[in-house]
């Protein structure tokens, strides 16, 4: 979600007016609000991005900067912080609380029968450059959480719970700011409204046990660093038997020959200076074999040659990137007397053309006396 545009996050078009943006923000914020998704780190992150998007798009000046220069423009031009509840988003957050918690003005909310952990689980997997480019099948071992059967997931001895002294069993605590009342999940009981009198010995009061599992996943061709893959039904198991999903984040090892930039591939090609001067066809490696690189006469150091469609396949199926060969001119480490003589004769044969540095003095006539 962090790579999506603010319009994509709120699911509106770039031409959307303020009313449409506000309506979309309220809808998305209600879906992803942490109090509606206790313990769900992904929902909390989505809520943060929704709030960040609304702060910018609801402000005409910020939105204009963003439309022209993107997020970088906001950072360089004094855009507001992406954390907290700044700008117009704060007022709307209050009304969203009221809608979700029936106003929050003295009305209590029934304690929720929540688990002590998110149903979704995450795991990091390191893959080679080749595995990322071409895809592969990968065996993954991971640990998931399952509700403790001894305490039925409560974390309490014999499952006996007592009313939480902090929220008085409501699962929520309330804060007032001016004429507005805000509610948040009780930090003591985590929204359950009750807490354990004595810890369950089997799970040490955690309410769950860790179990090992393994699964074989199909890594799609073109996957890139920090891409995520969802494996349905392999996450944590709740008290009522529901099971979440497993989210696999990929980390791709660097290759010694190829450098990847999105779907493009770069390769540095060493070329001897005489090959660059005369022009020559040489063979270079690609992801799938060899390619013929036709050097132009007078090829320059760091010059790029592009081979379209020879890069990485897009992980979403949108074609392929390019392979870019960057020339790295090389010179002899030492010269024999014969080579020295030949090069001197070659230089003399070019006459003034071999001394382009002398021309810079013409523009400085009169400087020196």
Outline of the structure:
This protein has 369 residues and is α+β, with helices and mostly antiparallel strands. It has eight helices and 15 strands.
The major β-sheet equals: 4 strands, mixed
**Strand portion:** 25-35%
Strand order, sheet with most strands: 10-11-15-14
CATH classification class of the largest domain: Mainly Beta
Helical content stands at 10-25%
What is the average per-residue confidence, as pLDDT, rounded to a whole number?
81
What sort of overall outline do the alpha carbons produce when their principal axes are compared?
A: elongated
Nearest-angstrom radius of gyration? Answer: 31 Å
Q: Which stretches are low in confidence, meaning pLDDT under 50 for 5 or more residues running?
A: 78-113
For CATH, the homologous superfamily of the largest domain is named as Urease metallochaperone UreE, N-terminal domain
Which series of helices and strands comes N to C?
HHHHHEHEEEEEEEEEEHEEEEH
The domain tally reads 3
CATH arch. level architecture of the largest domain: Sandwich
Number of helices: 8
What is the name of the CATH topology of the largest domain? HSP40/DNAj peptide-binding domain
Task: Give the CA-CA distance, first to last residue.
Answer: 66 Å
Structural class: alpha+beta
Using DSSP, what is the number of strands? 15
């Amino acid at each position: 979600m962090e790579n999506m545009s603010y319009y994509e996050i709120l699911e509106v078009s770039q031409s959307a007016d303020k009313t449409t943006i506000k309506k979309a923000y309220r809808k998305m914020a209600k879906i992803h609000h942490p109090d509606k998704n206790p313990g769900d780190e992904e929902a909390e992150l989505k809520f943060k991005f929704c709030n960040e998007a609304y702060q910018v798009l609801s402000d005409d000046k910020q939105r204009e900067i963003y439309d022209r220069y993107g997020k970088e423009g906001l950072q360089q031009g004094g855009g507001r912080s992406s954390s907290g509840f700044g700008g117009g988003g704060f007022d709307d957050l209050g009304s969203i609380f009221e809608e979700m918690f029936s106003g929050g003005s003295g009305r209590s909310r029934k304690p929720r029968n929540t688990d002590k952990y998110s149903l979704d689980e995450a795991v990091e997997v390191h893959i080679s450059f080749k595995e990322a480019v071409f895809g592969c099948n990968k065996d993954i071992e991971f640990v998931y959480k399952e509700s403790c059967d001894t305490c039925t997931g409560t974390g309490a001895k014999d499952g006996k719970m007592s009313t939480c002294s902090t929220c008085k069993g409501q699962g929520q605590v309330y804060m007032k700011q001016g004429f507005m009342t805000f509610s948040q999940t009780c930090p003591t009981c985590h929204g359950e409204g009750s807490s354990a009198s004595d810890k369950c010995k089997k799970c040490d009061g955690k309410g769950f046990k860790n179990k090992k599992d393994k699964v074989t996943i199909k890594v799609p061709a073109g996957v890139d660093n920090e891409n995520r893959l969802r494996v349905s039904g392999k996450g944590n198991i709740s008290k009522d038997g529901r099971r979440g999903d497993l989210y696999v984040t990929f980390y791709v090892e660097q290759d010694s020959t190829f450098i990847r930039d999105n779907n493009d591939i770069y390769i540095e090609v060493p070329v001897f200076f005489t090959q660059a001067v005369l022009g020559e066809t040489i063979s270079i490696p690609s992801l799938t074999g060899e390619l013929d690189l036709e050097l132009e006469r007078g090829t320059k150091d760091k010059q790029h040659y592009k081979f379209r469609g020879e890069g990485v396949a897009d992980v979403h199926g949108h074609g392929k990137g390019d392979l870019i060969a960057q020339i790295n001119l090389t010179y002899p480490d030492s010269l024999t007397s014969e080579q020295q003589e030949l090069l001197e004769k070659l230089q003399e044969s070019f006459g003034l053309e071999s001394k382009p540095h002398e021309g810079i003095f013409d523009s400085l006539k009169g400087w020196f006396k």
